[in-house]
Amino acid sequence: SQDGAGPSCVTPRALSITTEPQSPLEMNLCWNEIKKKSHSLRARLEAFSDHSGKLQVPLQEIIGWLGQKDEELSAQLPLRGDVVLVQQEKEMHAAFMEEVKSRGPYIYSVLESAQAFLSQHPFEELEEPASENKDVSPRHRIQNISRFVWKQANVASELWEKLTARCVDQHRHIEQTLEQLIEIKGAMEEFSTTLDQAESVCKTWEPIGDLFIDSLPEHIQSLKLFKEELSPVKDGIKVVNDLAHQLAISDVHLSMENSRTLEQINMRWKQLQTSVNERLKQLQDAHRDFGPGSQHFLSSSVQVPWERAISPNKVPYYINHQAQTTCWDHPKMTELYQALADLNNIKFSAYRTAMKLRRLQKALRLDMVTLATALEIFNEHNLQPSDRVMDVVEVIHCLTTLYERLEEERGILVNVPLCVDMSLNWLLNVFDSGRSGKMRALSFKTGIACLCGTEVKEKFQYLFSQVANTGGLCDQRHLGILLHEAIQVPRQLGEVAAFGGSNVEPSIRSCFRFSNGKPTIEASQFMEWTNLEPQSMVWLALLQRVTMAEQVKHQTKCSICRQFPIKGFRYRSLKQFNVDICQTCFLTGRASKGNKLHYPIMEYYTPTTSSENMRDFATTLKNKFRSKQYFSKHPQRGYLPVQSVLEADFSETPVSSPTLPHADTHSRIEHFASRLAEMESQNCSFFNDSLSPDDSL
């Protein structure tokens, strides 16, 4: 260095050796060496600067181009909510992606050159802040240039990846939006046509006042079918609105034309729904409210030669013009009672009652009504408090709503007039045999709750809630009212004697044993008592088991009639191995080769499991080693056979004229049933206060 700032060619060691002036030859050699190194360094710097300059310019150009394309891509959004416009956007974006794709090889080549450059000229991270000194060493210059190239390459690479990813996402967004718009457009065109047809049907409706009353049921049914045909439109419009909402969330708003069309479709659909609902309500109101007693629509429940007539207190009776007779019972109800007489050969009172109630339940279609639905109807008709009195018209209105709701919820066709008339007939037979035309709301709710298709536990909980106070407690008086109402159900079938008769005092005392000496009883204590299947209510629990057993098939053969498989209840002997009896043979007392049924037995109303089979096998094995004296001292508690011969004359519900009340008839039935109960008690005691909870069947 001529100015003394550069490196010296004289080493410190040389300086320490001598301080004498160097010779001219040594000075020339040193100077030539310095010039040679200086030229070499200058060449390297120029080559490095030239190479880095060739990279910086294209990298800066690429960064600018990518930024411009990113702005152009952003300018393509938001998409417009029209099929034609989105298709144009799709074509434009396809051309845009093609342009970006064509630029890709050049960008990759520049980035690869930058990578190669950086591999040849690596740099280190700055450990200390840069000095303010303007003089920078060549090494630091190289480091700075490499660092700058690295930063530019990173920016270009990130922008390129971001742009390509955005292109793919936007392409997917355009495709999805186009599909949704095409679906919305097609659906709106379809719904517009459907609404045009539906509105033309509405224009053909005649005023309610111009319709014949006999044609009202037909109009109601046709309007229900019309409403059902429109149900897919409701679901479809909801789907279209959801699609439009999803597009709005994606910042794609329907065009003015599409928005106007969708708004018109929604408005027309609401107007159509309102028109149909108002029309249906008007028809139903006219159907229910027309004529004295609002019972005109029930006249279709009978066929010629029968005619439905109404007494002054609104109670219906039936005229047979061919036989010139009248009776309180509906012709179909009379046929049903005659069919129930076939069950009198069942020798166990509780099973006989449950079987009869099951047939009655299915005939009235109450097995398809849930307790929850019934409670909704009760609340809609304000059947509170339970001690209020209902007349026949109120009962008819409530039953009509119940069966129409059943038809609506289950989606099945129900002969509403027939079901209403039959259910009214049964309720009057049970709770108003004198045909006064009045019954308590508690009686009505008890009858419906007992025969509805709900688990017995829920039935008991609901019945208890109807007589409990606001604190959920029930005293003896109100419990007696509930049990008296419930016992009327088997009483009407002539089966009351086997369940303690009409005297509910023993049942009240039995229940209040769970009250811990308190004057009131809680719902949990009442449920604990009912779980033991008390005498007065055992028929209700058995009704559920009969229902569950109907569809059950046991893969075994009856030892008496050889039926295979056994359907319904299955009875297994716990005294002899491999002895199974079907419900028909067991309940009718049929034996094989003069042998009596083998006791003790186990009843199954569901398919048996392997654990149950092992348990029964062990019990049978134990019983094999027990003597007759053991079984005589430990008799199995069960239902006793009923002498059906003595019962045959009064087991059917008698038919009488409207001028003859049923009170005398039911008194005679109860009298005969009491005599039968005395005969049964002489043979073997069954229900008594000494039974432990574990002795229930």
**What is the terminal-to-terminal distance?**
121 Å
Number of helical regions: 23
At CATH level 3, the topology of one domain is Recoverin, domain 1
* Uncertain residue ranges: 1-19, 127-133, 637-669, 679-697
What Rg, in angstroms, do the CA atoms define?
Answer: 48 Å
The largest pleated sheet is described as:
3 strands, antiparallel
Total strand segments: 14
Using the 3D structure, state the CATH architecture of one domain.
Answer: Orthogonal Bundle
Beta-strand proportion: 5-15%
Can you say what the CATH homologous superfamily of one domain is? EF-hand
* Order of strands in the sheet with most strands: 3-4-5
Class from helix and strand fractions? mainly alpha
GO cellular component, one term: plasma membrane
Membrane topology: Peripheral membrane protein
Keywords: Cell membrane, Membrane, Metal-binding, Phosphoprotein, Repeat, Synapse, Zinc, Zinc-finger
Main location: membrane
Please describe the structure with a list of short key phrases separated by commas or semicolons:
three-stranded antiparallel β-sheet; disordered C terminus; disordered N terminus; Wheat Germ Agglutinin (Isolectin 2), domain 1; mainly alpha; zinc-finger; zinc ion binding; 697 residues; 23 helices; Recoverin, domain 1
